[in-house]
Amino acid sequence: MQDGAGENGAPLVFDGPLLIVGGGEVDAEMLTGLAQLAAGLVGADRGGDILMAAGLVPDAVIGDMDSVADRTRFPPQTKILTLSEQDTTDFEKCLYSTRAPVTLALGMTGGRFDHTLAALHAVARHAAERRIILIDGHDLAMGVSGSIEFEIDVGARVSVYPLGRTRFARSRGLLYPLDGLDLAQGKMIGTSNRAEAREVSISVESAQDDPWLLILERNNLKPFI
To answer: How far is 148 from 207, CA to CA, in rounded Å?
Structure first.
């Protein structure tokens, strides 16, 4: 085990999908399935215990370590990054301490509602620099900064949720077009739209607009990783 690292240290770099596990609601079967897709496993504080309980060895455990049951249970190859600052959550500590082409996050939603909101806050802060996908038992919520194109089954639910304010220029392949809509929390959101074509595109007015969430059923994960 090794202590240290942080926002001024060298980040841990993963060449493939990174799975970060938090201390929220985690289904063991789902965790095992996602781990098979991942090039790296990181526990956000107590998430390290959850990985070990599932028979998985984390590459790192990152956080302020106030919830880990026993640091000595982790094998020597697991890096322990103790970050004592309290301006960010353990999930965000994991984000600024790692680099990966896509980041899957499990156990960040469910349980305490303030933890779910904090996870959305972290996605909003980091969506411009990396692809982050929150996953739970029903859905995936991917942070998007700018425009996106993707393929999905006709009839699939497609929800769009602003993490601030986002002005949408146009959409293609959706039942309810987003053309010219200005979405913002507390004003207008885009819940329960539907794909009318396999190819869907969503364009924003400006790349400087706030990030937004693309929310789909969980079985649509693989095309995004």
So the answer is: 11
Residues 88-116: what's their mean pLDDT? 93
SS3 20: strand
Say if residues 165 and 209 touch (Cβ distance below 8 Å): yes
What whole-number distance in Å separates Cα of residue 115 and Cα of residue 201?
A: 31
DSSP 161-202: EESSEEEEEEEESBSS--TT-EEETTTB-EEEEEBSSSEEEE
CA 63 to chain centre: 17
How far is 29 from 150, CA to CA, in rounded Å? Answer: 27
Bridge partners of residue 61, in order along the sequence: 43, 80
Task: Please determine, for residue 34, whether its predicted confidence score (pLDDT) is greater than 70.
Answer: yes
> Which three-class secondary structure string do you get for 90-141?
HHHHHHHCEECCEEEEECCCCCCHHHHHHHHHHHHHHCCCCEEEEECCCEEE
Question: Mind listing the pLDDT tens digit for each residue in 206-218?
Answer: 988 999 999 999 9
pTM of the model: 0.93
Token pair listed for 99:
């680099």
Average pLDDT rounded to a whole number, residues 122-142 = 96
